[in-house]
Specification:
Strand order of the largest sheet: 2-3-4
Helix content: 40-55%
Order of helices and strands: HHHHHHHEEHEEHHHE
Strand content: 5-15%
Number of strands: 5
Radius of gyration: 23 Å
Oligomer: single chain
Length: 257
């Protein structure tokens, strides 16, 4: 007799495979055969996971249409099954999946739009964090400031794209009013997504230097290195003003020596 762990693994595989397997014989028939019961469960699993993807990726779905999105979801789910008891954790690999999904190859901007939606989802559900302890920062020796590393708020994400994904996202909101035209040749964008205390999420376009500064800090580079990176891509970057801005708006929430 199979052990419980093996039985559970075989059941999960049978559900995800979507084909008739010998596992149906392991299910006790009662009105419906084992294979039919497995199919009912499989349908419910795929339906619930597809609905979870639709909730996270409404703009992606709107761009490709509901039927295509369901088709893509049916291919995605067996390759990237849920591994968490929290359904909010499901779907993070969809942007990478779309980047290699041949039927969507013509929509070169689609993976980055999906990355924006996943970042938005993560920011919305991220943990709260108290603001940066300015009193503790004030007592750090000035000559050691360049060695400090800073931490971005859990409810903040940085995103860069070669496409105007913010414009694409905006014109595909349900309440959008105005010209829906998107010029894909207008260039890319660097974004900071950050959640405010009222739970609203801001999507802030950033110039190259500001983005480089935050990206380096997010990578746990020390402050001196982060400043060097910012100035390398944009020499006129106002580093004191930017640091003050992101402390005040809560993007930087902690530091270590």
């Amino acid at each position: 007799m199979a052990r419980l762990r093996e039985l559970q693994a075989d059941f999960a595989q049978a559900v995800l495979d979507g084909v008739d397997t010998a596992f149906g014989h392991c299910i006790r028939a009662s009105g419906l055969g084992g294979g039919r019961r497995l199919q009912v469960y499989r349908n419910n699993v795929f339906l619930s996971l597809t609905e979870a993807l639709k909730a996270v990726y409404p703009v992606t779905q709107r761009l490709v249409g509901e039927d295509f999105f369901r088709y893509a979801a049916a291919r995605y789910i067996p390759l990237h099954p849920s591994t968490s008891g929290n359904l909010h954790d499901f779907g993070g690999s969809l942007p990478e999946f779309l980047a290699t999904f041949e039927p969507a190859a013509a929509l070169t901007y689609l993976p980055d739009v999906a990355r924006l939606e996943w970042a938005y989802h993560q920011v919305f559900h991220a943990a709260h964090h108290p603001p940066l302890d300015l009193a503790a920062l004030a007592v750090a020796p000035a000559e050691r400031h360049g060695e400090l590393t800073f931490t971005l708020h859990p409810a903040a994400r940085l995103l860069v794209s070669a496409f105007p994904i913010l414009r694409i996202w905006q014109v595909n909101q349900a309440d959008f009013v105005g010209d829906p035209t998107v010029d894909l040749t207008e260039g890319g964008i660097r974004l900071l997504l950050i959640r405010r205390e009222n739970l609203e999420i801001e999507l802030q376009p950033l110039p190259a230097g500001e983005f480089a500064l935050l990206q380096a800090l997010a990578e746990q580079q020390d402050f001196a290195t982060a400043c060097e990176r910012a100035l390398a891509v944009q020499p006129d970057t106002d580093l004191p003003a930017l640091f003050s801005k992101h402390v005040q708006q809560g993007a930087l929430v902690d530091f270590s020596r």
